[in-house]
Amino acid sequence: MMAPSWNRTITGVIACAALALPAHGAETYQVLAVPDAEHVVLHYRGLPVSLSLAHLDVPTDEAARGALQQRLTRMITGKKVEVLHTAGFGTDANGAARVQLVLDRTNVNEDLVAGGFARYQPGTKPEPVFENRIKAAQDKAKQNKAGVWGAGAAASAPAAAATPA
Predict the structure, then answer these.
(1) Which CATH class is domain 6-148?
(2) Residue 104 above 50 pLDDT?
(3) What is the pLDDT of residue 43?
(4) Using only C-alpha atoms, what is the Rg of the chain?
């Protein structure tokens, strides 16, 4: 078993501290990068912090993943976002906190699901206040056959979502 890396440990500690803020009047953090379709790197007190996006089931198809990453990159890179987090959002396989991002009053996670770039995936514990709008965005995307819900959707379907604990 591999020992946790220093980077991963400090990232987890910083992420927890950064995310303990309330949503209203929350600090904003500059987005430094979008390294893949599921993660963002934020600037926190001089350090880069990698976080995973909550409530998104990302497509496995490379073209669909690329489209999601491109949309996310254009939307938030270089901009300041608010970070929403509860323990119910869970963590990714590397221990990075799962978060929702808000850019100028727009929930980024909800926007990605509404555009059909990803499907909704529940957190580790139900969080209706944070999840209901994303579920509704998915219903609308399905109805409009947007993105992963459109023609050829089977090819870009995400892996089956894990059952929440």
Answers:
(1) mainly beta
(2) yes
(3) 97
(4) 15
